[in-house]
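Lecture 7 notes: from sequence to structure.
We start with the chain below.
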Amino acid sequence: MADITDYTGKITSEHADKPRYAAMVRAVTQCFVDVKNALSSLPARFDLDRAVGKQLDDVGLWVGVSRHIRAPLSGVYFSFDMAGLGFDQGVWRGPFDPDTGLTTLDDETCRLLIRARIGANHWDGTLAGSKAILGQIFNTGTHVFIQDNQDMSITVGISGKIPSALFLALLSGGYIPIKPQSVRINFYIVTSVNDSPIFGFDVSNEYVAGFDVGAWATPL
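Predicted structure tokens for the same chain:
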């Protein structure tokens, strides 16, 4: 980090005892110190882990993501007595958010969406690669899997910890890029019981399990 002493420290002994001369040097060189410090701070300001506000918007623009939603995400605002929209699930409605739904993402959600886009920009189109992308977005305990239906369509399932209403809306709205070109997504299904796999036959793991363990899947 630049400091004014980088310049005043170079004053020769002939002028070192002249306070007005030193003041003049400080007045002239302070602008250079400020510019150097501003320039050196730019990498950190646009670092994905630390960027906020407009800087984060610029990072998103670079990779192809905007915090502004194409259409309002309905059914995501916090609400009492409504399943899936309680504490740690629903999104607090801001003072300028419309009644119709959320239109602007907060910094942390936007940051995760940018991470997903960066992963998608380097994606090889395989199911294994998509799992790595989804793993960057959803919390530990949430298991996202993709079923290839062998007819140019896939089904996306979510088991374990149920994500927030906002992330479910982003996923079903196509804002999280997890499908190859020309492949359609038939269904998004999520477990109906938190921390449970989806009910299914002949499988028993964290994704799908049978009676007394698995829970019915709910389509988004």
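Points to note: The mean pLDDT is 86. The chain has six helices and eight strands.
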